[in-house]
Amino acid sequence: MRLLILILCFVCFKAGAELKLAVNQGHAKPLPIAILEFEGETKEEKELAKKMVAVIKNDLKSTGLFEIISKSSYIQEKIDFDMTPRFQDWRLIKANALVNGRIKVIEGGKISTGFRLWDVYASQAMTHSAFKTNKKYWRRTAHLIADAIYKRITGEQGYFDTRIVYVSESGGQLSRKRKLAIMDQDGSGHKFLTDGKKPVITPRFSPMMQTVTYMTYENKIPKVFTLDLETGTQKLVGQFPGLTYAPRFSSDGKSVIMSQAFEGSSSIYVMNLETKRVKRLTKGRFIDTSPCYSPDGGKIAFNSDRSGRKQLYTMDANGRNIKRISYGSGIYATPVWSPRGDLVAFNKMEKGLFYIGVMNPDGTDERLVSSGYMVEGPTWAPNGRTIMFWRQGKSHKDGKQDRAELVVIDITGRNERVLKTPLDASDPAWSPPLPLTLK
Amino acid sequence: MKDSKAYIFSAAIHLSILAMLFVNLPFMRSISLEPPPIVPIEIVTIDQLTQSPPKKERELPKAAPTKKIIHTRTKKEEVPSPPVKNEAEKVHEKTKPETVPLPKDSLKQKDVIEKVEIDPVKSKKEESKPEKKEETDLKPKKDSKEVTEEKDKKEKNDDFTSVLRAVQELRKDQPEKGQEKAFKSDNISDKLTISELDALRQQIQKCWNIPAGARNIEEMVVEINVTMNEDLTVEEAEIKSKVLMLSDSFFRTVAESARRALFSPDCTPLKLPKGKYEEWKNFTITFNPKEVM
Hints:
The structure holds two protein chains of two kinds.
Chain A: H1 2-17, E1 20-23, E2 31-35, H2 43-62, E3 66-68, H3 87-92, E4 97-106, E5 110-119, E6 124-134, H4 138-154, E7 163-170, E8 177-184, E9 191-192, E10 200-205, E11 211-218, E12 221-228, E13 234-239, E14 243-249, E15 255-262, E16 265-272, E17 278-280, E18 288-293, E19 299-304, E20 311-316, E21 323-324, E22 331-337, E23 344-350, E24 353-359, E25 367-372, E26 374-380, E27 386-392, E28 405-410, E29 417-419, E30 424-430
Parallel strand pairs in A: 2-3, 2-4
Antiparallel strand pairs in A: 4-5, 5-6, 7-8, 7-30, 8-9, 10-11, 11-12, 12-13, 14-15, 15-16, 16-17, 18-19, 19-20, 20-21, 22-23, 23-24, 24-25, 26-27, 27-28, 28-29
Helix pairs in contact in A: 2-4
Chain B: H1 2-24, H2 55-58, E1 113-116, H3 124-128, H4 144-157, H5 159-171, H6 176-184, H7 194-207, E2 222-228, E3 234-239, H8 242-247, H9 249-263, H10 277-280, E4 282-287
Antiparallel strand pairs in B: 2-3, 2-4
């Protein structure tokens, strides 16, 4: 018995003698990535390759997670698409990842584009893919390639092949024109969807489809519409008595949730888009507004003054089990559930400043990610890592106001950047990823 | 007479028991407690002992703080009011659907993008890599009958054999070099000192670029088995959790970032004492982003 214990002790000692090291610190810097010019034989192919690589670089750089290595520092300037890169050359310039590709114009005005992503330090391929499409959609193909690179390196779904719908504003305060506009997430392909004859507010995307819900006021009567972006069909959801605010799609896209003010109080209602049946979810003489479904459809976040001051609450989809989740100072508004369900973005007003913040759905770990004279309307990128909102500058004595603009920021509070729009911009809504085929 | 003998015998036994108790039981002794000698101890930072550079140089930029403090304005500003929205008046339900006029050609997108498969390129490394040879036993093989008979004999021999077998089982996943090391480790100068380990840790920390903002990153712990070359470069870094690598893309992201740290030019060569190759030829490294997040 003693012998057994002695031997076991010896073995344990031996196992403990194996060298082990724990690393608990590091840094969070953008990942250096080299993106080579895609191969092309003809002049047309080469031009397309140049434009596509520029879009891919811009997409990845805009996330703040990648550092694009300058072409001038490349040692290996060309890699045959069917060959393995000289990894040692790329290690020398500290490229962690490498992308190369090939474009071919094929029959029927189509292009075939392939790319390969390499892990330089591990000297191995990470992913590869190819897309065939009409050459006029080269930009979307570039976004899809950027999405694939982003997904393979970060583990998150890419969000480059998405669109933004927002309210484009022009004119003075009294004669303000509000048009519905759409563009790619990088600001390209800008289009106006309405002509501005009727003011448009609060556009919101369906989480499942390329459909937008929005409101207009005609003769001070609120009307809720849906617009199918694939077919261009608009449908009137309904006209509602009293003030109606911020209609939003449910997670399955089959109903719309909104708040309606009536006789001094405001309650939350849900309307089935097929049956047009309306169900009231909250009751009482409170002001309940800005409802938003969780991605699984089981919960609703909203804001209410039921505790005396505007705070954030959650409830079950049937209106039961109401729980307060915000307890900070100031006023909270516009809760928006993240598409991955782990966070709720919100608007906060305190001591003369507006803030955009995020918190866990149970109200813990509140973080403020941006602030300004007026920052409002948070909307999530489909991967739940990036938030867009709109920022309005101060009003001046001469009646002029600083430009209203769309701002994008990472949930870590880093990499804030302004999205360029032709006119003033407010109320953005981020689309889900576009389907590979649009009817 | 008989009774007196019994009494004497009983008394002798009682006395002997008392004597044994007096000699062996500690609580029966009076123990003199001497205060321990005073040893002067100075608290110093580990930097002074390790081979690492001064603290200021070592400080790494930390990942995003969990609570961001937003800049505050010094001037007092009026609380801005949100834009006033138009009030609705009484409305009557209309049966006809209405539409907002759309500008012409605003929605004429008909995209078709087809995803095509391409053949993966065979990397030179893969091509040149010789296939792993299966371990072959060079000793003449015995009949299974013989083997079992021998086994039985041995089992019967004594318990010691079974203990040794159990030990061998435990050692199975420890390679031969482990055995070599066990003997070499007897010499304390062959082991890596705390300073040497600390220098290595600090070097690797500088090379580890953590993917900030990734989901549940704080819960991910990556273990890597490292095989080193004698020239202080990493020959192979094998991520232990192969199942998670395949099933969890977020884990894969963190694990790959950890592996990249080991191959990073800033971590090549690794700061290890050349003379102690047997000690660091193989080691396990654990990357834990929890404390960083």
